[in-house]
Each structure stands twice: as structure tokens, then as C-alpha cells.
Amino acid sequence: MHELAIAESVVEAVLGRTGERLVTVVRLQIGTLSGVVPDALTFCFDLAVAGTPLEGATLEIQECPGRVHCRSCGREVESEDQLLLCSCGSADVDVVAGRELQLTSVEVR
Ligand SMILES: [Zn+2]
Fold first, then answer.
1. Domain-embedded: residue 88
2. What is the pLDDT of residues 28-79, one digit of tens each?
3. Model pTM greater than 0.70?
4. In sequence order, which ranges of the chain are alpha helices (DSSP H)?
5. Is residue 79 part of a domain?
6. Which of 37, 58, 61, 68 is deepest in the core (most CB within 10 A)?
7. Distance (Å) from CA 80 to ligand 1 centroid
8. CATH, residue 62
9. What does the alpha-carbon distance between residue 35 and residue 3 come to, in Å, rounded to a whole number?
């Protein structure tokens, strides 16, 4: 499962910085074009933290909208799904934003 691997790497990244301190909140920023399903990630996070100092921590996910730049007409449009297609009909687009998957902050007890 894609989200489980992501959840495990998030837990590892946090543990690498907080060590044995108890973590209460983990905040992530996820782009809507990253392909990550927030609900699935939350579910997997709860599995991945079992038995670690992150056990019981709340995962807060902030979703960022996707934006693409069309190379055919030059417009920049919002895109909420993975089917990257400009309203002019061109699929020759560059993703400007929306593929983020980053840890923004954690709170320790
Ligand atoms: Zn276009």
C-alpha cells in the first residue's frame, strides 16, 4: 500500500529528529496532485506509529490545490485531479503546484 510506505517514512523522519520525546501532533502538507489520499494516509499513520514515541499523535493534513501551466495557450489553471488537461483541450501542461508532500511541523510533549 502506497500510503503505508509514506506513513512509515514520515514516522522515521520525525523519529530521526525527536528521538525518544513523545510527539503529540504531526503536520503535513499534501498537494492534491500528489496521488496521496489523506484518509488512507491517516489510517496508515495510526498503524505506523504503534509502539513508537509517536503513538497516539494526531496527524493534521493541510491540502494544497494543484496548479498547472499550459504550454499550448499559456494559461495557468487550477487542477484538482490527476487528469492534467487544460480547458483549451491541451494535455501539454507543466505542474506548478500540487505535488507537495512535506512535513511542516511537529509538537512534542
Ligand atoms: Zn491551454
1. no
2. 999 999 989 999 999 999 999 999 999 999 999 999 999 999 999 999 988 8
3. yes
4. 2-18, 38-48
5. no
6. 68
7. 16
8. 3.30.2320.50
9. 9
